[in-house]
Fold:
Amino acid sequence: MKLLLTGKNGQVGFELQRSLAILGQVIAVDQEDCNLAQGASVARLVQQVQPDIIVNAAAATAVDQLETNPDLAFAVNATATGILAQEAAKTGALVVHYSTDYVFDGSQQSPYRETDATNPLNTYGQSKLKGELLLAQATSRFLILRTSWVVGAHGANFAKTILRLAATRDHLRIVSDQIGVPTSATLLADLTALLVQRYQLTGPSSFPFGIYHVAPSGETNWYDYARLVISEALAKNQPLKVQPQDVVPITSAEYPTPARRPANSRLDTQLFRKTFSLHLPPWQDGVRRELRHMLGTND
Structure:
């Protein structure tokens, strides 16, 4: 079986190269191989590879920068996704696509279910939602995995930013009124491999296609998340100037950003867990694992 993986050098894509390798021939590409902002290149790629499964881990994710570059956001996150789905529909290929908690506005008090109304607050969320819609319009053989606060050893993320800042500053001011769940790129990649394997074994006739929310168990906020990252790094003898007590909680209003963020990014994963009979471990487990790789420690 042939699998086409886009975004091979992203946080999730990097891990997917490992997890998917045992399931078939993986053709992994990135921006240098195919410019997703150019629709013709996207269509040509799928036509050349003729994959049985497309795993689309590519995305424009610089949330604040995309506020001033919506054309790029929609070209990569929406139009390219739609073209991948259109080409997949011609051959009956499965499309696995990753989306985001940012399709919601965060005003709900409880975790978001797949059926809850979407209302993205920023360009990134709007473009990802458009990609979902274009995908579902083009083919019925799809899995959309909405997730949140991705963290991986490879690529840029919040944890790496905290480690970099904590090494040079005396204190950090971190937003504490946005809640969500950090999701390990390794976990996402491993779960994806399990879903692809199930698809291979059952075939399309009985496979439960659709949208699913995927994130570890538990919840946190950026402030507590930062304190955990610093504590773990210090326990690994990293030379940080900032101690956990030097992290100061602030409100979103005290740290304005070009792109608005949802106050509540929690995703209800009950449908995913029941449908696929899979356990989602605590978020701290995944973060600690990714930190060990970032810091070059294995203990």
Observations:
- The first helix runs from residue 11 to 19.
- The first strand starts at residue 2 and ends at 6.
- The chain is about 40% helix and 15% strand.
